[in-house]
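User: Structure please.
Assistant: Input sequence and predicted structure:
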Amino acid sequence: MANVIIRPDWHLPESSITPINEYHNRRAFVKQLGLGAGIAGLSLADTLQAAAAPKLYPAKRNAKYNPKIVLTNKAWATGYNNFYEFTTSKEHVRFLVDKFKTNPWQVEVSGLCDKPFKFDALDMAKKLGLEERVYRFRCVEAWSMIVPWTGYTLSKLLKQAEPKASAKYVKFYTAMKPAEMPGLARLPQYPWPYTEGLRLDEAMHDLTFMATGIYGEPLPKQNGAPLRLVVPWKYGYKSIKSIVKIEFTDRQPKTLWNALAPREYPFESNVDPGVPHPRWSQASERLIGPNPVRIKTIKFNGYPQVAGLYK
């Protein structure tokens, strides 16, 4: 295991992201950036995939999960992403995803369950049906967004596998495609593939969401297409992207960041303003956008309904 961890480029200014408030659709966004659709992270394949599921997007918003907060600008939410399999620069992920193939996409569900199975991401979305939920998203790096995710509860998926009584945890695996993910070669000392995990009761909580879309459209590749986890009361690195495998286990699974730096990235990783990161405070966060503002961080990221899981 490496002793030196390569971090994101912390000193890149927020101003390096083009602040675009007036873009109301993908065509205008691409045209005014002066970039091709693929460079914007919305390739022809993405467009065709969206056209293949016209009844899925936009999905009806669930009023129960709709905080009275202004959404983060779409251009920022899709242009400021951590995805180390491509690059450690958040601003540049979208420029490197064009070769990443996300359709068709097969996911395996296995481990301690009575009915292991495999599924195609698009087929499962059609089977389970989709809804939109507006969630707070809080990164461990002390920045945050307000995002409208489209998807379904993780519990709907996991129940199909009928987990055994011995299953206590769920482990998730991200795709590992070196030919399509250039960042893998830059970080050979990392224990790839990217893995994350939850306790089974956390995974089954109603807030835990499998996202297939964002802003009323299928997920862009830089946001974790075609299927990612969203756990809104935990730091963002727990919300693993581009999932290819889900495994039930009886032991706390090893996860990439926890293996690299357990003091900085504990397995639980619940948002808590009273527990600082070893290198910075978590008492406040930057709500990103054209005019970023600093706000106080709320315990459990503003989702007190999960407090009972940790008594």
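The mean pLDDT is 87.
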